[in-house]
Structures are given as C-alpha cells and as structure tokens.
Amino acid sequence: MASRIRIRAQLKDDYCEVKALMRHPMETGMRKDQSGAAIPANFIEDVQVLHNDVVVVQAYWGAAVSANPFLGVRFKGGAQGDIVKVVWRDNQGDSGSGETTIR
Amino acid sequence: MGNLDPLGLTRRSFVAVSSALFVVAALPQKIWAAALRPETAFQATTLEATFEALGGAPTVSDGIVFSTPDIAENGAVVPVRIEIDTSVLSDVSKIYVIVEKNPNPLAAVFQVPPNTQPYAETRVKVAQTGNLYAVAEANGQLYMMQRETKVTLGGCGG
To answer: How much is the ipTM here?
Structure first.
C-alpha cells in the first residue's frame, strides 16, 4: 500500500516541509451512479504525520477534502536522514501509509 | 483445593486474567484517539451549527494568513493554505477549514503539537460560490479569517 502515497520531506530554513499526495476516491456519499443508486461514502477520516515515530500532525478530514488528497505541513526539529511517515485511515476501515527520509 | 487462593484463582489463571486486563487497559488509548475527531462538528449542516459545535463564534484575527483562489474553475479541487503569524497569534493548537455552502461545512481539522508549525495546506471541494473560513484555536479561544471563493463549476458534480 506504500505506493498509495507519494511523499516528500525537505529541510527548509528552520523547519521541515512535508508534502504528501494520497490516492483515494474521497467519495462523499452524496453522489449517485448511472443507475441512480447512491455511491457509499468512502473518505479518509484520520491522517497522521510522524517524524521518527513521533506524531507531528494529527489531521481529521471530512468528505469535503478533494479526491486524491494533498497534504502540506511543516514541523521543527527535523534533520537530514530522519524518517517521515504519513499514515491514513478511511471510514471503511481501510488504511495506507508511506514514508521517506528528510533531504 | 489447597492450591487455590481465596478468589478461586490458580497462579496460571491469574496470569491469564492479568494479561487480559493489560490488553483492555491498552485499548482505551485508541478509543480516546477516535473520540478526538470532532464528530458533531463534522456532521453539522450549517455554518452556525459548525461554530456552535466547535465552541462558539470565532473572532476575526489578522494573525491567520488564509490563501484561497478568488475564482476556482473546478470546485472539486480548491487549494487552501493556512499560515499563522505567530507574532500576532501564538499557541495555536488546531486549525479548521470550513466551507460555508457545503452540505457539511467542516472539511478538515489539523491538530499540531507545540513543536509543529501551525501551517496546513490541502485541497477541498467547494459546492458553490461562498465563503471559506480558516479557524484557529489557541488557548481554548477561536479565531477566524474568511475568504470568498467564486466557483464556476461545482464540487459535487460528476
């Protein structure tokens, strides 16, 4: 599932910038398919960004976040080579994660 | 009966029971984490109800730098960026993104511990032209900044 997140962590002046792109349909549950049946809601509810296994951002999302969500956050205290991980969980219990090293 | 203690537990069953208790004790952390998702606010259907669920109407603050496009051609993908000017607004622990005209206005919450910059960037769906709000929580107080985004193609279509 690691391929479901593209993630980059880059050291800037006094912070580390993390950018992540997740693959997820982010269905609101309000759309209908061609036969008129409702498409069930399927969206990421919970996203965590971890720096060396410490949570640096905890996000909660609703269905209004766009499909294939983008996340950009900044934290302090990162060093080159440290591991940054992004973990998500959706409302249907599916999950995904991806990690990279700070450069 | 000589090897049973007054509770009727053998040493072996005591070990089993105590390790089961340990598992139960470890569980609430996960439940607690799930409970932190502001479900009431996510389910609110009006802007007022959303603010109500978060703890009242926020006051406007220049410390919130809220960037959104003036005109969004595609309402399904509207980039938003929230930056906090920490010289004006300090100790921000949560950032909320709210889209006024959406069926459920609250789109996202970002919780940041003290060592993380109060900064968030994402993309949201905007159903129709209306105000977007960036709300920051600092020391239990709510602050906001609003921006109008015109949508030429709604975010809820196919």
So the answer is: 0.93
Asked if A28 lies within 8 A of B36 by C-beta distance, the reply is no
How does DSSP classify residue B154?
Answer: -
Q: Token digits for A75?
A: 């934290």
| CATH fold of A2-29+43-101 | Immunoglobulin-like (2.60.40)
Burial A23-56 (b: 16+ CB within 10 A, else e): ebebbbeeeeeeeeeeeebbbbbbbbbbbeeebb
Per-residue pLDDT tens digits for A20-58: 999 999 999 999 999 999 999 999 999 999 999 999 999
Show residues of chain A in contact with B110, CB under 8 Å: 57-59, 73
Tell me, yes or no, whether B19 and B62 share the same domain. no
Q: Does B77 touch chain A (CB under 8 A)?
A: yes
For chain A, the C-alpha Rg in angstroms (whole number) is 15
Q: Residue B53 sits in a domain of what CATH number?
A: 2.60.40.2470
